[in-house]
């Protein structure tokens, strides 16, 4: 199901369903459609699912960093008039959710991270010296997933276009450096809110030990593994991802 993109003020976002807001945060190379299964499932479960387009390539280079994106998210939440949100983030989106929670803890009711940066990520913006070679980029896109077939031609084409756009590549590299600079290890023990960690056992971008470390550092977290799964669990195993998350939300009465 294709969802209509709303355009209001400086924001572009998808909004489906009614109820407690779940704000979904996409990754560096991730599109809003990556969360179609999440959107369709939870919008039928009494939640309002909102996916804002993050300004990854539209902010000035000086503001192209995790902290600025977290502030942008805060402004969006204020604009929508939400008070008590659930944040769900994949990859860079998880990192933005974590940093937003650090800055504005009273706004966030619960946090879900999957394949999140914030502690360690393998070459999130690097390795594009052969960016003109389509087959090299195709292989990099496939390596994100356990099953390379998940990297459809559409996904590969989007990555190829991004890394061959000089402006976008410069910003991609800036974000990768920012992700390292904004390491969350010292902040996580202070985050007392409930956190659900859903991780692919075969993630090569943010390997399994990253999930284990998140779980050890966060005082109120639970870690769930998905087998035969890479960096984007909600895409590779959408039914299992949704079941895990739904059961967790029920258990926590969220």
Largest sheet: 8 strands, mixed
Segments where pLDDT lies below 50 for 5+ residues?
Answer: none
Q: Please state how the strands of the largest beta sheet are arranged side by side.
A: 1-2-4-3-5-6-7-8
**Percent of residues in helical segments?**
25-40%
Order of helices and strands: EEEHEHEHEHHHEHEHH
Chain-averaged pLDDT: 92
Strand portion, in percent? 15-25%
The rounded distance between the terminal residues' Cα atoms is: 26 Å
Cα Rg: 17 Å
Number of helices: 9
Question: What does the overall shape look like?
Answer: globular
Structural class based on helices, strands and sheet pairing: alpha/beta
Number of strands: 8
Helix and strand arrangement:
Elements: E1 6-8, E2 11-16, E3 20-25, H1 36-42, E4 47-52, H2 66-80, E5 85-90, H3 92-103, E6 108-114, H4 134-143, H5 153-163, H6 166-181, E7 195-200, H7 208-217, E8 221-226, H8 233-236, H9 238-251
Parallel strand pairs: 3-4, 3-5, 5-6, 6-7, 7-8
Antiparallel strand pairs: 1-2, 2-4
Short overview:
This protein is 39% helix and 18% strand. With 254 residues, the chain is of the alpha/beta class.
Task: State the main characteristics.
254 residues, alpha/beta, globular
Written description of the protein model:
The protein is an alpha/beta fold and 254 residues long. It is built from 9 helices and 8 strands. Strands 1-2-4-3-5-6-7-8 form an 8-stranded mixed β-sheet, sandwiched between helices. β5, α3 and β6 form a beta-alpha-beta unit. It is globular. The model has no long low-confidence stretch (mean pLDDT 92).
């Amino acid at each position: 199901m294709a969802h209509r993109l709303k355009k209001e003020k400086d924001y572009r976002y998808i909004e489906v369903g009614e109820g407690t807001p779940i704000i979904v945060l996409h990754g560096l190379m991730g599109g809003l459609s990556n969360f179609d299964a999440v959107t369709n499932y939870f919008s039928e479960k009494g939640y309002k699912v909102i996916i804002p387009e993050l300004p990854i390539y539209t902010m000035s280079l000086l503001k192209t960093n995790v902290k600025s994106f977290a502030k942008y998210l805060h402004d969006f939440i204020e604009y929508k008039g939400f008070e008590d949100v659930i944040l769900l983030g994949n990859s860079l989106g998880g990192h933005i959710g974590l940093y937003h929670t650090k800055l504005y803890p009273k706004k966030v009711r619960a946090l879900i991270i999957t394949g999140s940066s914030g502690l360690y990520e393998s070459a999130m913006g690097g390795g594009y010296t052969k960016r003109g070679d389509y087959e090299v980029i195709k292989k990099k896109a496939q390596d994100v997933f356990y099953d390379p077939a998940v990297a459809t031609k559409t996904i590969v084409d989007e990555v190829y276009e991004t890394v061959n756009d000089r402006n976008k590549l410069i910003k991609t590299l800036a974000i990768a450096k920012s992700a390292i600079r904004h390491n969350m290890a010292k902040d996580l023990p202070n985050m007392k809110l409930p956190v659900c960690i859903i991780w692919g056992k075969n993630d090569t971008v943010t390997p399994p030990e990253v999930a284990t470390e998140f779980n050890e550092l966060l005082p109120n977290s639970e870690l769930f593994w998905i087998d035969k799964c890479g960096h984007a669990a909600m895409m590779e195993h959408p039914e299992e991802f949704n079941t895990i998350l739904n059961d967790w939300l029920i258990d926590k009465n969220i």
